[in-house]
Amino acid sequence: MDERSEGELLRRVARGDRAAFDEFYRRTAPWLTVRLRRRCADPELLSEVVQDTYVAVWRSAGSLAPVAAEGQALGWLWTIAARRLVDGFRAQTRQARVPVTTAEPVAPAAEDEALAGGLGGGLEQALLDLPPELRRVLTAMVLDGLTVRETSILLGLPEGTVKTRARRARTALREALS
């Protein structure tokens, strides 16, 4: 995907251009759905999150003009979707339903692929050597920018466990790189 094109589409959406919104949706929805599916196996919740995300995009595209101009349209879209997913998990918890999450991604997550392609050998290997439960916490908190609480909800873990795993992951990376 071309970040510049998506940014231009969002600037047009901000001016109320429905065709630009349709094109933005057509280009980004498959990517967003795959990325969300790696964190949530509940198709009903997934559908709701995608819909809520694009409603939010339509309503708040006007506030995005500076971000879109800097080529951060997909990052902005992901932030909205991740927050909507956390909200969806919270709603499920309030309804006394346990959120369904995938234990292991079927394919490598986009962030894992990006990390593997863009990091030096030492850091890349240190990340790959982390146990999956530590890597998931680190990915959610560092790459997705979620808080401890949001990561806790997303992964279905107590906040204390998230903090412990994040600390263990950082310690392991520091030791591997020294």
SSE map:
Layout: H1 3-14, H2 18-37, H3 43-60, H4 65-69, H5 73-94, H6 110-118, H7 121-129, H8 132-143, H9 148-155, H10 159-177
Walk me through what this model shows.
- The longest helix has 22 residues, at 73-94.
- It is globular, with a radius of gyration of 17 Å.
- The model is unreliable at 105-119 (pLDDT under 50).
- The protein is mainly α.
- α8 (132-143) packs across α9.
- The chain has two domains: 1-98, RNA polymerase sigma factor, region 2, helix turn helix motif (Rna Polymerase Sigma Factor, Chain: A); 109-178, Winged helix-like DNA-binding domain superfamily/Winged helix DNA-binding domain (Arc Repressor Mutant, subunit A, Orthogonal Bundle).
- The protein has ten helices and no strands.
- Keywords: Sigma factor, Transcription, Transcription regulation.
Short description:
This protein has about 180 residues and is mostly helical. The chain has helices spanning about 5-15, 20-35, 45-60, 65-70, 75-95, 110-120, 120-130, 130-145, 150-155, 160-175.
Order of helices and strands: HHHHHHHHHH
Roughly how much helix do the residues carry, as a percent range? over 70%
Percentage of β-strand residues? under 5%
Task: Tell me the number of helical segments per DSSP (H or I, 4 or more residues long).
Answer: 10
Uncertain runs with pLDDT below 50, 5 residues or more?
A: 105-119
Question: Overall pLDDT, averaged?
Answer: 79
Beta strand count: 0
**Biggest β-sheet, characterized?**
none
Compute the number of structural domains.
2
CATH architectural group of the largest domain: Orthogonal Bundle
Query: Termini distance?
Result: 36 Å
Organism: Kineosporia mesophila
Domain RNA polymerase sigma-70 region: 24-94
InterPro entries: RNA_pol_sigma-70-like (IPR039425), RNA_pol_sigma-70_dom (IPR014284), RNA_pol_sigma70_r2 (IPR007627), RNA_pol_sigma70_r4_t2 (IPR013249), RNA_pol_sigma_r2 (IPR013325), RNA_pol_sigma_r3/r4-like (IPR013324), WH-like_DNA-bd_sf (IPR036388)
Family: Belongs to the sigma-70 factor family. ECF subfamily.
